[in-house]
């Protein structure tokens, strides 16, 4: 059905009549009564609408800095428009090359919403991959006599809807990642700059060919608080995934039982139920496992997750994958992320909750790489920490210092006021405070004490020495530049390590049945002289209105001196 004032017109016509309805829809001047076909197409492309959907062949949008000759699509020169003239809010693509790479970027940097054609069309590629991998599997079971030839095609038809669901699951996850990356792009400019340099120098990415910004352009954006646009993020993330997948395939991680376990879920239910053995023998099983594992790590951990672990502590891609997997399981992040992504709430609130949860992922992954035997024994470490974390999690808010507990509650309330479910917001904002339970469980194991006793002591000591206050101040330090960021992380690690050593020291020097206040009193009495000196320095530091690396380094050293020179007989 054609709307009033509309019509179907021949593109070879000399002119097309413009009705009042068309003028209103396209926001044309009242004096416009006729347009040539190319003029009408340009007017449609420049219309002030919510969505422009391109499903055709040809390049219709270019950057204002490009010429038609730069585009290389002469057949559409007459209808092509510049990105800076677009008034549409969102552009989606069912076709390829509907806009030049620079056109996409210009539109996005002017406030429009647009990804890359590769991302918008990735469902087709994903579906083809599933189809090929399923047919390879079925060819094998037919050859082995496990499936009759005449039953093959009906089985394929039976799985159509589930394959579509699997493909859409991947697509939805990718789009969540782009949205999260976009929301934090302004704050991630420096690390994105370094990652782009890494992709260029070590991974063979041609920045000019991929329309990715130069270091000079990134410096300019960083200076004004701007970051990568959606098309640039989509391109960068695609190259990150390719690079990390290549790393995995050069090692034996895809063959390990832990990661091979993801293979069956790639296939539809009928294949999992009938041909489980054939799935484990799939000729492309390593490639499938590597793809699934890397997609999850990047889609949930972020494009810079593995890169930052490499920068900070020299972690390999295998190390990053192992740490990601263990941290996700220990803290139940997969289930939490599923809730965040499926509950109804504003996108900005959803993004904030997931970004907040990623703080725990990053700290836990780093902790596992620094404190556990390497390579991480994923199953063993999950068994060592997961149940203990879950058993203590609900008690942690009650152990936090009152001002900190109030801040946690305030953050959760603010998220709830903006549309997040109250229980979900509370769970997310308490999560970062569960991270120290890794240390608590280690101390309990070393001291052969009950984990609840150690947790209560750990958090009480933390409040007593105001170490959380110092850690918070460290978090406020500049970390845009690599070395400043590494110094900041080293300070934070040092404070946590001191708290860990002090807790172990006090636990081993006191009776398990003593109230926590008596344990702290005993420690105060036996270390009185050192505490007086440390407190004097810390009081002076806390009195400074603005903390820098120098003052906080001194503070960390004062806390460390308490752990390293205890009179209770425990040597740090």
From TrEMBL:
SUPFAM superfamilies attached to this UniProt entry: NAD(P)-binding Rossmann-fold domains (SSF51735)
One matching Pfam family: GDH_C
Domain of life, source organism: Bacteria
Domain spans labelled NAD-glutamate dehydrogenase catalytic: 1-178
Biological process annotations from GO: L-glutamate catabolic process
Domain NAD-specific glutamate dehydrogenase C-terminal: start-end pairs: 225-560
Gene Ontology molecular function: glutamate dehydrogenase (NAD+) activity; L-aspartate:2-oxoglutarate aminotransferase activity
InterPro entries: GDH_C, NAD(P)-bd_dom_sf, NAD-GDH_cat, NAD_Glu_DH_bac
PANTHER family: NAD-SPECIFIC GLUTAMATE DEHYDROGENASE
Protein name according to UniProt: Glutamate dehydrogenase
Source organism per UniProt: Nocardia jinanensis
């Amino acid at each position: 059905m054609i709307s009033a004032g509309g019509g179907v017109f021949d593109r070879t016509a000399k002119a097309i009549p413009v009705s009042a309805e068309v003028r209103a829809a396209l926001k044309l001047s009242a004096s416009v009564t006729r347009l040539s076909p190319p003029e009408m197409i340009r007017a449609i492309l420049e219309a002030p609408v919510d969505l422009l959907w391109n499903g055709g062949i040809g390049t219709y949008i270019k950057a204002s800095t490009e010429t038609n000759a730069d585009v290389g699509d002469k057949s559409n020169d007459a209808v092509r428009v510049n990105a800076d003239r677009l008034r549409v809010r969102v552009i989606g693509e069912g076709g390829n090359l509907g806009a030049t790479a620079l056109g996409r970027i210009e539109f996005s940097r002017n406030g429009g919403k647009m990804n890359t054609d590769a991302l918008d069309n990735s469902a087709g590629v994903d579906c083809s991959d599933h189809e090929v991998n399923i047919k390879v599997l079925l060819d094998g079971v037919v050859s082995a006599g496990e499936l009759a030839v005449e039953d093959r095609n009906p089985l394929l038809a039976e799985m159509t809807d589930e394959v579509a669901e699997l493909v859409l699951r991947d697509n939805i996850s990718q789009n969540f990642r782009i949205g999260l990356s976009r929301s934090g792009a302004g704050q991630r400019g420096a690390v994105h700059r370094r990652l782009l340099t890494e992709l260029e120098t070590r991974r063979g990415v041609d920045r000019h060919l991929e329309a990715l910004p130069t270091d000079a352009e990134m410096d300019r954006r960083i200076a004004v608080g701007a970051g990568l646009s959606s098309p640039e993020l989509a391109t960068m993330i695609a190259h990150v995934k390719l690079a990390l997948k290549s790393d995995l395939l050069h090692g034996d991680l895809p063959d390990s039982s832990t990661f091979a376990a993801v293979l069956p879920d790639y296939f539809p239910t009928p294949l999992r139920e009938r041909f489980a053995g054939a799935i484990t023998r799939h000729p492309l099983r390593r490639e499938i496992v590597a793809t699934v594992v890397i997609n999850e790590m990047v889609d949930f951990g972020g494009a810079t997750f593995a890169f930052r672990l490499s920068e900070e502590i020299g972690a390999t891609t295998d190390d990053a994958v192992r740490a990601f997997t263990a941290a996700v399981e220990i803290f139940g992040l997969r289930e939490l992320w599923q809730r965040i992504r499926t509950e109804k709430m504003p996108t900005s609130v959803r993004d904030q909750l997931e970004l907040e949860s990623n703080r725990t992922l990053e700290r836990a992954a780093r902790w596992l790489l620094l404190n556990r035997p390497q390579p991480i024994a994923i199953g063993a470490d999950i068994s060592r920490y997961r149940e203990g974390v879950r058993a203590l999690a609900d008690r942690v808010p009650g152990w936090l210092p009152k001002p900190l507990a109030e801040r946690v509650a305030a953050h959760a309330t603010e998220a709830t006021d903006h549309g997040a479910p109250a229980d979900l917001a509370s769970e997310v904002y308490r999560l970062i405070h569960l991270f120290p339970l890794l240390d608590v469980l280690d101390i309990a194991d070393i001291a052969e004490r009950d984990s609840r006793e150690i947790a209560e002591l750990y958090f009480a000591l933390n409040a007593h020495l105001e170490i959380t206050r110092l850690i918070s101040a460290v978090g406020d330090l500049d970390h845009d530049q690599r070395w400043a960021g590494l110094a900041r992380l080293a300070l934070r690690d040092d404070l946590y390590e001191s708290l860990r050593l002090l807790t172990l020291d006090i636990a081993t020097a006191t009776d398990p049945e003593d109230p926590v206040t008596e344990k702290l009193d005993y420690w105060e009495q036996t270390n009185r002289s050192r505490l007086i000196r440390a407190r004097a320095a810390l009081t002076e530091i806390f009195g400074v209105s603005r903390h820098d690396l120098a003052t906080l380094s001194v503070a960390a050293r004062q806390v460390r001196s308490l752990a390293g020179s205890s009179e209770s007989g425990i040597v740090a």
